[in-house]
Write a structure and sequence with these properties.
48% of the residues lie in helices and 0% in strands. With 123 residues, it is mostly helical. It has a domain of 64 residues. The two termini are 20 Å apart.
Length: 123
Amino acid sequence: MSKLYSVLRLKCPRCRKGNLFSKPNPYSFKDSLDMPDNCPVCGQDFKIEPGFYIGALWTSFPIVIFIMTLLSVLLLVYFKMELNLFFVALTLILFLLQPIIIRYGRAIWIHVFVDYDSDAEIK
């Protein structure tokens, strides 16, 4: 399993098997960002330090820019959408994608700091 696969599947960076989030549904608003304290498979600490995931803003931002660029080309160039409607559509789409973007931002952030260990102990 590659690091990219692990990020895309929202898996633990150490064992690449345990889930990063308690609930698979990002639109379960009450607990969509709840993460277990530790990986259920290898025991990796997901709460590395207080405020650790504030840094995930740095990884979420490029995701938002990529989506905005893609939508801009698609809606303005391909569909030739009127500018006022485009801004409304872009805002609405990005708002609806926020739970997913935040999750991927967190997944990328923890994968930057925690290395894969093929010998990670099974809990």
